[in-house]
UniProtKB/TrEMBL annotation:
Protein name per the record: 5'-nucleotidase
Methyltransferase found in the keyword field: no
Organism annotation: Cannabis sativa (Hemp)
Alphabetized InterPro entries for the sequence: HAD-like_sf, HAD_sf, Pyrimidine_nucleotidase_eu
Main enzyme class: hydrolase
Length: 338
């Protein structure tokens, strides 16, 4: 294990019981990575969070490879809901970027909820073939988008919906994005939700835009009165939310929220063949499928049902943060990549 990974581990707030129960680390690593509450506070990290690394040597090799290639070869791909944002807010399930939207006519909110209750179980059904499930997701998103148009969504309504919502970023997200912006490292935020809402959430909750951040999501088209009239490009849903969406999405923008200067040139992103991937779902690992990457470090946030899902997550992700952890551990990890 190299020095940089040792330094990374020393900053990680880890539950000793989690390590013992799940046996993700060999005995030689337990003392090194387990910190008591006092030491966590001295390092400026919030107490109570836990992290699991199934293969420390593999992670060490990946960190070394990315460092050797340099930051010019690195990009970050991140999911939005429950990855950059909190899963729990004030003891309640946090609002998603899609779910926070309230239309002028509450009847349309109810109709969208009815679609959710119908299609959401189908999305996770283990018996439906992927081809059929993909068609169902396209159907769900198409009906939902039609309701948004018919129900009279407006720019002002989006701003008010965000202001009234309980959506919140994990502690440390702003610090992470600022660190990546300083290094000119592009961040692609992938979402099956709505780009316009995500941008508004970032404006209101982070109070700044980031020149290196691009949103790959469904983008709305408004008329001169600020009313939603259509959507740009092909629909991005949960089963096609990956690097291929770069070609499917509405024109990507040079700056967050800059709708006047679109660019279709993704070459600068595609030449960055080292990836830090952040997600909260096993399916988020597919966000880098369309990129011919050399080295990828995958970070998973296991927010709920930890006991039943930990084995699957630790086998899939290089690093797993448990129980809706803050982003501080990822900030420490990123600082070891150059």
């Amino acid at each position: 294990m190299n020095y940089h990974l040792q330094s990374f581990f020393k900053t990680l707030p880890v539950s000793l019981n989690a390590v013992r129960n799940h046996r993700c680390f060999s005995v030689q690593f337990r003392t090194r990575i387990c910190l008591d509450k006092t030491e966590m506070e001295e390092n400026g990290l919030s107490g109570g969070s836990e992290v699991v690394v199934a293969d420390p040597d593999k992670l060490s090799n990946k960190i070394s490879a990315i460092r050797a290639a340099g930051s010019a070869k690195l990009q970050v791909i991140a999911d939005f809901d429950a990855t950059l944002t909190k899963y729990w807010v004030n003891g309640l399930r946090g609002t998603s970027s899609h779910g926070l939207l309230r239309q002028v006519n509450p009847e349309y909110d109810m109709k969208r909820r009815e679609l959710y209750y119908h299609y959401h179980p189908l999305e996770f059904s283990p018996t439906i073939p992927i081809e059929e499930k993909t068609k169902l997701m396209e159907e769900w998103w198409g009906k939902t988008h039609a309701l948004l148009i018919e129900g009279g969504v407006t720019c002002d309504g989006i701003k008010q919906s965000v202001a009234d919502s309980t959506i919140a970023f994990r502690e440390g997200v702003g610090e992470l994005l600022e660190l990546l912006e300083e290094r000119d490292i592009p961040v692609l935020i992938f979402s099956a939700g709505l780009a316009d809402i995500i941008e508004e959430v970032m404006r209101q909750k982070l109070h700044k835009s980031f020149k290196n951040v691009k949103i790959v999501s469904n983008r709305m088209v408004f008329n001169e009165k600020g009313c939603l009239v259509s959507f740009k490009g092909k629909t991005i849903h949960t089963l096609n939310k990956n690097e291929h969406a770069l070609e499917m999405a509405a024109p990507l923008h040079k700056e967050l929220g800059d709708v006047d200067e679109p660019t279709s040139d993704n070459s600068s992103v595609k030449t960055r063949t080292n990836v830090l991937l952040l997600g909260d779902h096993l399916g988020d690992l597919g966000m880098s499928d369309g990129l011919n990457y050399v080295t990828r470090i995958s970070v998973g946030f296991l927010n709920d049902n930890v006991e039943s899902s930990l084995d699957a997550y630790r086998n899939a992700f290089d690093v797993v943060y448990l129980n809706d952890a803050p982003m501080s551990g990822v900030v420490k990890l990123v600082s070891q990549l150059w």
